[in-house]
Structures are given as structure tokens and as C-alpha cells.
Design goal:
The chain has about 425 residues and is mostly helical. The chain contains 23 helices and no strands. The C terminus is likely disordered.
């Protein structure tokens, strides 16, 4: 969408507010999807929830690729948003539930890596399609082409095993044991994991039946919301607090503004050509992938907490340098090459440190900390907070940077809120050279 919006604005002539709504509606709809996905995955299973999300992606991509007007574009974006909510909640949960403890960090962060690969491919396709296709066709293909990988996902997930933990929640012990034998390194490991899952589900560890009857409320996720929200134990309250907190700060730090509006940031830094701005965003995608790979192999060795500390420290440095360099560009009357270069480098530094820790750890951590019965719907609350913050950032970024700009004087800040013209604005209106 970051590259497509450049061309959508040119063809449809939509306002900045409409662009913000188009960008942010996905996350508002993802909020609905994530809150629905927890109960859905408890009812129909983890695998079919992923299948459902892929169908939503296909429908949304087709609608956006068709995109005859702004309204249809919005509908398609919203349908995709619901699919995003489902996928963001279920992918790390499914990964965590089929993986062993020794490789859980690696496997649970794979969805974040694959999201990064998808973003990079999006940036590359934006650059190619924007350069070689017409305005009318280019951006539609940028959005519609997403239906193809969604179709691959729909068929691919049906070939994967169901989560053994979900099968145990349904009382299907025989099937759960077969899956564990498939996804474990040894038979002994499978037996130990099977024993732990049965204990977590409240089943006698010595039970050898293939099918057992469990209370209806348990395997359909009934009363989970009460245990999470209304009457949580002290430990569950801390789990929920931790999950909500890490999801809140993942997007409160502004990553969505950088990823979605990077062409605008590069334009503000002084990159005037559309092609060069889209090419610079490819660098953002490459940086994301490279540092996600580092995080992927570090999570189970370095640890979640240490990576978070390194990540947040680097993000602070990156954002500080970015703010300084953009201010230098804004205050100068001529092109400042060093500040332009520093702005791009600072953006890459920020993206690098985000994906080294905060990005992947958020999803790994929130899928690990909840007990079996509460995991799906507990994770869905975290994703709902994540999408809410994502929507807030994406739907306000343009308005905020236009209102505040990069470096208003303190005296001018009052004018922003009182909507009175500043002395600078008055001078510009009365200046004959400016008027000419």
C-alpha cells in the first residue's frame, strides 16, 4: 500500500485525510478480526482459522485490484484487514503449539520474518510496476497480485498438521499423539510433550484413550473471557498486562509510520524522484529481512529480554538522528546532501534495531506466556491492542506532521491549535515575491 498510495492519489485525487483512512482502516478491521479469531480458532481449529484468513486475503486483494473507485478500494482494504487480524493472531500461536521448547523462539518468529519478506517483495513489485506500467494499471496490480500467495497459503495450510494442543483440547488424544510424533525430533520427546499437554488440559497423564470427553465449555473456549478479564488470577493478570504492554509499545514507537509512509519521509528528506523514493523503500525492506534473520537465530540463544534491551536502545538512537537530520533539511533553504544521506541511514538504523528485537519478540513472547486454555484468546487481546495502536499511528501521521511540521518554533505551536495565522504565514502572504 505504501507505494500504491502514491499513484492512487494521482489517479483518484483523494485528499490526505482519505489516504490516512485508507491506510488505517486495515488495522481497525484487523482489530475486529483479531478479537474474533481467538474464539474461532478454539472452535474450528488453528489450521482452518489460517485457511479462513487466506480466503479473506484473496477476496480483499481482488476487490482492491479491481478498485474502480475509492469506496470499493476501502471495502477491499477492510476485508483484507479482517484477514490480517486472523493471521496475526493465529500464526504465532500455531507455530508455538507445534514446536518444541528448544526451537520455539526460532519457529514462532518465522511469521514475522515472512511478513518482512512479503513487505520486501511488495516494495520491489511497487518499484517495477510503477516504473513500467501505466498509472491506471500499475497500482491495481500492486494490490491485486496479493491474491496469488493467498491462494498458495489456502492450499498449503490444508496439507499441514493440526495443532496437537488444540486436538487435546477437543479430547482427540490419538490424533494429537500422531501429530507430536511428526513434529518432534525423537519418540521420547513426543511422549514428554504429550504428557505435558495432557496435564495442562487437566487430563490424567496416564490416560491412553484415543478419545476422551471434556467439558463443552473447555474445548469450545467458553468462559475464557471471564478468566482473562473479569476474574483473572494474579498470574493471569500479569500475563495479560505483559502481553498488552509489549503489543502497545511495538507500534507506539512509530514503526508503522516509517514502513507505510517511508516514501513521504524520503521526499521530506530531499529525494524528489518517485522512482528513487520507491527504490529507497526497497532498502528498508532489505534491512528488515537482514536483521530479522539475525534475530531469528538469536532468540533461543541470547534470550528475549536481552534482545529487547538492545533493540529499544538502538531505536532511540535511530529516531533521534532521523529527527535531527530532517530538521536540518527543513531549516535549510538549499539541498543539504549530508542531511539527506543521514536521514536515509537513520531510517535504516531504526528499522534494523526494531527488527532485531521488538518486532519478533513481541509475537514470540505473547504466544508463550499464556496457559493452554487461555492462549488463543489471550493472544487475540494482545493483537487487538497491536492493531489499535497501528491504526492510530497510520491514520494520524500525515495530519500530525503537517500540523507540527519538522521544527516549528514554540511560539508557532500555539497557532497550530488556535488556527490563527502565525507571523511567518502573514509575512509570506504579504511578501510580493512569494505572491508572484
Amino acid at each position: 500500500m505504501s507505494g500504491a498510495m502514491v499513484f492512487i492519489k494521482d489517479e483518484m485525487g483523494i485528499s490526505d485525510t482519505q489516504q490516512e483512512v485508507l491506510a488505517g482502516i486495515l488495522n481497525l478491521c484487523a482489530l475486529v478480526g483479531s478479537l474474533t479469531a481467538g474464539r474461532t480458532s478454539d472452535y474450528i481449529g488453528r489450521r482452518y482459522t489460517i485457511f479462513l484468513s487466506s480466503i479473506l486475503f484473496i477476496i480483499g486483494a481482488v476487490l482492491m485490484g479491481y478498485g474502480p473507485n475509492y469506496a470499493i478500494l476501502m471495502v477491499g482494504r477492510c476485508v483484507c484487514g479482517i484477514g490480517v487480524g486472523f493471521a496475526l493472531m493465529i500464526a504465532p500461536v500455531y507455530s508455538a503449539e507445534i514446536s518444541s521448547a528448544s526451537s520455539r523462539g526460532f519457529l514462532t518468529s518465522l511469521p514475522e520474518l515472512c511478513i518482512g519478506i512479503g513487505i520486501l517483495l511488495g516494495y520491489i513489485s511497487n518499484y517495477i510496476l510503477g516504473k513500467y506500467l501505466s498509472l491506471k494499471l500499475g497500482w491495481r496490480l500492486m494490490l491485486g497480485i496479493a491474491a496469488f500467495p493467498s491462494l498458495v497459503l489456502a492450499f498449503g495450510i490444508l496439507m499441514m498438521p493440526e495443532s496437537p494442543r488444540w486436538l487435546v483440547m477437543q479430547g482427540q488424544l490419538g490424533k494429537a499423539k500422531k501429530v507430536l510424533l511428526q513434529v518432534s525430533n525423537t519418540t521420547h520427546e513426543a511422549e514428554l510433550r504429550f504428557k505435558d499437554i495432557k496435564i495442562a488440559a487437566g487430563i490424567d497423564e496416564n490416560c491412553n484413550d484415543d478419545i476422551v470427553e471434556l467439558p463443552e465449555k473447555f474445548h469450545q473456549g467458553e468462559a475464557v473471557w471471564k478468566e482473562l478479564i473479569l476474574r483473572p488470577t494474579p498470574s493471569v493478570r500479569w500475563m495479560l498486562f505483559a502481553a498488552i504492554g509489549i503489543h502497545f509499545f511495538e507500534h507506539a514507537t512509530g514503526i508503522e509510520a516509517v514502513m507505510l509512509y517511508s516514501p513521504r519521509i524520503f521526499k521530506k528528506a530531499g529525494v524528489t524522484s518517485k522512482e528513487k523514493r520507491l527504490l529507497a523503500t526497497v532498502g528498508v525492506g532489505l534491512t528488515k529481512i537482514f536483521f530479522l534473520l539475525i534475530a531469528l537465530f538469536s532468540l533461543d540463544k541470547v534470550g528475549r529480554r536481552r534482545l529487547l534491551q538492545i533493540s529499544v536502545g538502538g531505536m532511540i538512537i535511530g529516531l533521534t538522528i532521523l529527527g535531527f537530520s530532517l530538521t536540518m533539511v527543513d531549516q535549510s533553504n538549499e539541498k543539504v546532501s549530508w542531511a539527506l544521506t543521514l536521514s536515509i541511514v537513520a531510517t535504516y538504523v531504526y528499522v534494523a534495531f526494531f527488527n532485531l528485537g521488538l518486532g519478533p519478540v513481541t509475537w514470540v513472547y505473547s504466544s508463550e506466556i499464556f496457559p493452554l486454555k487461555l492462549r488463543a484468546q489471550g493472544a487475540s487481546i494482545g493483537v487487538a491492542v497491536n492493531r489499535t495502536m497501528n491504526a492510530v499511528v497510520s491514520m494520524t501521521f500525515i495530519s500530525i506532521y503537517k500540523a507540527i511540521t519538522i521544527g516549528k518554533a514554540l511560539e508557532e505551536m500555539e497557532m497550530v491549535f488556535t488556527k490563527k495565522p502565525s507571523s511567518k504565514d502573514v509575512e509570506m502572504k504579504t511578501d510580493p515575491i512569494h505572491n508572484v
